[in-house]
């Protein structure tokens, strides 16, 4: 039997005869030859993907008088390094021992001692913007990521949709012969696209990664994460009781992936983007790690800053004479806290430190796996220690549930006092108070979100590459920014910047390579200008000077108003003043004005305008949806799983839920529909033959409404009806109905438009139970024919 390729060949030969084509060998060969770029020219190609290789063989009438030329895959230059890009989350400059901080990070220390520490490396002050800029090599507004993706607005610098004209380094490396894998936190897919319907072109696997294992949100619960493998949700492999923690899970996956790539191809280099959730809230550390830090922070945040500053001077990570910037009047003093408060705040910090130490341990496992396999020496490790400074989003008192804080609920000190022994465990979602975030950013002012000051934007960077860098254990003081990582990788890998990707002309890369500094500590800075902006917190660096204007407290996320228009500017000569301690604005108004003008020039150049002080207000989904907002949602069957923002948007609005069920003989039980998690969420389920509705909201508004009517066998309609009471808390009355007959009602004290990190579902509750009455997944044992959610006002 002839194979299809042989049939095609015969068809061409026959067609040539029938059409009276001349059968000279040269013309015959031209039928099969492709006018494409020769393989030898591929290494310098600036168009991706690269064209198919030219056929180099010979075509005769049969294979016996023909010479094959099999099209080989794109390969890299011999000796090309692997690339391991590590990114931690919410880590301040003064947190880790490698940079003089109080948390022992021995694996980070080891990399730095055998590589380079950069002391003037910068991020954007927030996660999605930094992550996008890191991979694109362009400023965050240039890639439309001026804020996190959930806050996208309809302006070029702020949509949250990375343009096709700014291809990521993952695409460039993959199309140049690298295997590419991504593990951990991905926070750069537009929120409406995070659904089973996609589109998937802006998921990691649509942006150049062959493989993805991680979560596609700003954060996740470490004991109960929402995990995707490529584009499909997968359950966690084991329970917290069996020792599960997501950081260990993603490390296992990353190690397995690099080993499998090498097993399949001995010479193919890989790019591993290892993006941990550590140490973003919720701060979760295994209990044995928490125990290591008991009593270590009883001296408080003011004293800790002093200790860190002294250690930084001692090890030379900051220049001699660097001042410790004072505590802002907005940050409370440790001495003013009550003994009970100090106990809670110290416990929160112990847990935060444990999480960092545990993260270092897991990064160390990945590094040691490479050392054991012999791959570490020719792996370019670029270790960005934090996508911004330490976070102050836990509020002045810290919180037992940071997810509650995000939804506008401050549980306060009392909540943490009552549940102090749960902090860091599966039942908690904790975050440290502002004072500790400020301490972890020593010696700088401010924290995450505050792009005007180095407390928000200066992060450690460690580079390790024994086969490519002669220097070891040295510091580098050149001024650099996260957009400089991509050109550094491309130069180290000897790969050209692409000019056209998938037929789309690319914006030029805006970063500058750092390779020039690898073996020359005294090399002159190649980055002389860099702007910073985040929700009108703004700054401009130019030739050793910084002008900046802070606006809005990072723990007050709403109602900031337009005061930024008249907010004062500060001026620093950072060549002489490493920590921005000496404001020269009053002494040098002309210099300040020069830099303010420079900021505006950069803002216009990189799509920073219009300036917008709104923060939590930008969560409004109507800012990202065209046309009329939806008022109804219908789903079929027992197997619906959607991220909550993609599902029905019900509370705090008047609405009904109507489920058409088929109850088998003997009755049914299980979850009909739900959204959210154990800490906040709602669930409509059947137990004991009767309907139950549960609403829980961070221990401040828990209610269970037990139905009074049993569900009969056969077809039945189960309905709920919620009527708001008009209160600012979103409270109201919820009624149950079975086949139109009243079946119970109850009062909700409050409700919210979102309920944390877990999905909306029909037919089960997959991750953690919204109600303590059941264990997950508590699948519904009847048939859900159809369920409809309708807004009634």
Automatic annotation (TrEMBL):
Q: Per UniProt, which keywords does this protein have?
A: Calcium, Hydrolase, Metal-binding
Return the Pfam families for the record: Sulfatase
Supply the SUPFAM superfamilies for this chain: Alkaline phosphatase-like
Q: Which residues form the Sulfatase N-terminal domain?
A: 81-492
Top-rank taxon, per record: Bacteria
Enzyme class comes to: hydrolase
Gene Ontology molecular function, alphabetical:
arylsulfatase activity; metal ion binding
UniProt EC number: 3.1.6.1
PANTHER family documented for this protein: ARYLSULFATASE FAMILY MEMBER, BLL2667 PROTEIN
Family membership, please give it. Answer: Belongs to the sulfatase family.
Q: What is this protein called?
A: Arylsulfatase
Protein species of origin? Planctopirus ephydatiae
Q: What is the lineage of its organism?
A: Bacteria, Pseudomonadati, Planctomycetota, Planctomycetia, Planctomycetales
């Amino acid at each position: 039997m002839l194979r299809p390729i042989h049939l095609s060949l015969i068809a061409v030969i026959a067609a040539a005869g029938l059409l009276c084509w001349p059968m000279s060998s040269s013309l015959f060969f031209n039928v099969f030859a492709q006018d494409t770029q020769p393989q030898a020219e591929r290494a310098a190609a600036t168009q991706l993907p690269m064209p198919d290789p030219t056929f180099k063989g010979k075509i005769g009438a049969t294979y016996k008088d023909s010479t094959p030329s099999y099209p080989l895959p794109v390969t890299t230059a011999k000796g090309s390094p692997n690339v391991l890009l590590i990114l931690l989350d919410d880590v301040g400059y003064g947190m880790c021992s490698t940079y003089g901080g109080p948390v022992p990070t021995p694996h980070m220390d080891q990399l730095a001692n055998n590589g380079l520490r950069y002391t003037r490396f910068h991020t954007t002050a927030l996660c999605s913007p930094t992550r996008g800029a890191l991979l694109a090599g362009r400023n965050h507004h240039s890639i439309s990521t001026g804020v996190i993706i959930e806050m996208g607005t309809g302006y070029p610098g702020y949509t949250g949709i990375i343009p096709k004209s700014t291809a990521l380094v993952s695409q460039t490396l993959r199309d140049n012969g690298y295997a590419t894998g991504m593990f951990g936190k991905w926070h750069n897919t537009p929120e409406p696209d995070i659904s089973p319907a996609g589109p998937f072109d802006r998921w990691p696997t649509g942006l150049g990664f062959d493989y993805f294992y991680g979560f596609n949100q700003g954060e996740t619960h470490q004991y109960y994460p929402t995990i995707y493998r490529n584009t499909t949700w997968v359950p966690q492999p084991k329970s917290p009781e069996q020792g599960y923690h997501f950081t260990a899970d993603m490390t296992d996956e990353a190690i397995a992936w690099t080993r499998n790539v090498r097993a399949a191809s001995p010479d193919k280099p890989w790019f591993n983007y290892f993006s941990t959730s550590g140490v973003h809230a919720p701060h979760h550390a295994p209990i044995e790690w928490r125990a290591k830090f008991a009593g270590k922070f009883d001296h408080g945040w003011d004293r800790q800053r002093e200790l860190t500053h002294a250690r930084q001077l001692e090890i030379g990570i900051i220049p001699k004479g660097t001042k410790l910037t004072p505590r802002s009047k907005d940050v409370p003093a440790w001495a003013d806290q009550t003994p009970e408060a100090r106990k809670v705040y110290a416990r929160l910090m112990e847990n935060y430190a444990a999480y960092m130490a545990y993260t270092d341990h897991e990064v160390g496992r990945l590094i040691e796996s490479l050392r054991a396999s012999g791959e570490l020496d020719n792996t370019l490790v670029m270790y960005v220690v934090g996508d911004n400074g330490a976070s102050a989003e836990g509020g002045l008192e810290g919180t037992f549930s940071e997810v509650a804080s995000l939804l506008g609920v401050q549980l306060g000190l009392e909540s943490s006092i009552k549940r102090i022994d749960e902090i860091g465990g599966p039942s908690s979602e904790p975050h440290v108070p502002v004072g500790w975030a400020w301490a972890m950013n020593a010696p700088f002012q401010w924290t995450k979100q505050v792009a005007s000051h180095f407390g928000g934007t200066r992060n450690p960077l460690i580079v390790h590459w024994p086969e490519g860098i002669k220097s070891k254990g040295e510091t580098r003081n050149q001024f650099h920014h996260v957009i400089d990582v991509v050109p550094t990788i491309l130069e180290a890998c000897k790969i050209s910047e692409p000019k056209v990707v998938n037929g789309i002309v690319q914006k030029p890369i805006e970063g500058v390579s750092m390779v020039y500094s690898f073996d020359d500590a005294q090399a002159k800075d190649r980055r002389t200008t860099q702007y910073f902006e985040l929700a009108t917190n703004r700054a401009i660096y130019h030739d050793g000077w910084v002008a900046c204007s802070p606006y809005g407290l990072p723990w007050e996320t709403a109602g900031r108003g337009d005061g930024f228009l008249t907010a004062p500017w500060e001026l620093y000569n950072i060549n002489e003043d490493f920590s921005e301690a000496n404001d020269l604005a009053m002494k040098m108004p002309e210099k300040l004005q020069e830099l303010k003008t420079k900021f505006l020039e950069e803002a216009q150049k990189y799509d920073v305008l219009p300036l917008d002080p709104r923060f939590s207000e930008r969560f409004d989904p109507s800012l990202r949806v065209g046309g009329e907002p939806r008022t109804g949602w219908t789903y079929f069957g027992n197997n619906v799983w959607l991220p909550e923002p993609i599902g029905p948007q019900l509370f705090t609005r008047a609405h009904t839920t109507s489920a058409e069920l088929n109850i088998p003989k003997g009755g049914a039980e299980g979850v009909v529909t739900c959204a959210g998690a154990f800490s906040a969420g709602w669930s409509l389920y059947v137990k004991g033959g009767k309907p139950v509705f549960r609403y829980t909201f961070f221990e401040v508004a828990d209610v269970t409404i037990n139905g009074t009517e049993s569900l009969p066998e056969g077809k039945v309609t189960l309905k709920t009806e919620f009527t708001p009471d008009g209160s600012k808390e979103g409270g109201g009355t919820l009624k149950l109905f079975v086949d139109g007959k009243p079946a119970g009602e109850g009062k909700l004290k409050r409700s919210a438009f979102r309920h944390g990190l877990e999905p909306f579902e029909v037919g089960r509750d997959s991750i953690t139970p919204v109600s303590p009455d059941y264990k997950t997944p508590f699948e519904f044992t009847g048939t859900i024919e159809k369920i409809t959610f309708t807004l009634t006002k």
